[in-house]
Amino acid sequence: MKSEDQEVMKVGLYLNEIGTNGVAKLMFSDGNVSGISLSEQVNILQIQNLTLPEDGEKPATRDEHIAVALMIPLAKFATKFARDDSKTKITIFEEAWMLTNTGQGHKLIKEMLRTGRSLRSAVYIITQSTLDYNRPDIKEGIGTKFAFKAKTAEEAGNIIEFLGLEDNEANHKMLKNLREGQCIMEDMYGRTAKIQTDVLFNEWVNAFNTKENDKGRAETEEAFM
Q: Can you tell me where the transmembrane regions are (predicted)?
């Protein structure tokens, strides 16, 4: 910004402006902020507030351009993390449907599913609907599947197709009547059954409770991280 070259100064001013406003500050800084590191045991990369273009669409607004630009280094970091075959790792994609909106995100999940086993890297895909990943290039790479209660007949049909169950009234009824903590599981051998999860500690229930305004939830999460 202090350069005598006007063009260089303009670039500096522009980077400073986008690096101090909005989500772009996740990528640019003046050097006083520590970046993400592969040396940490747990890394959380949040993309919740990124304004991503719709699937197949090019970014049109400034926010969308910044969001897509941010996805590139985030995807590269996740890939670098997964490719360290000296350690056993888990990569969890929470609300994974957001990644389908960008080519980088979709490519990242496909690559990690295909190479994860050989690199000792487990991949967990968590999404609200099986329809988001009910496609051959994704679901064939998933070894174990869990599907929880279906609220609509359409959603039950998507789950049945995703798990390869027989499309009949009994299975539709079973999926719509699952109780809290119950789900349908398909293991790596293709065996499918209804299971009941058993939470060992009440602290875990409190830590993952998203239904109530529990002020102590964050403290509980930190205590067990």
A: none
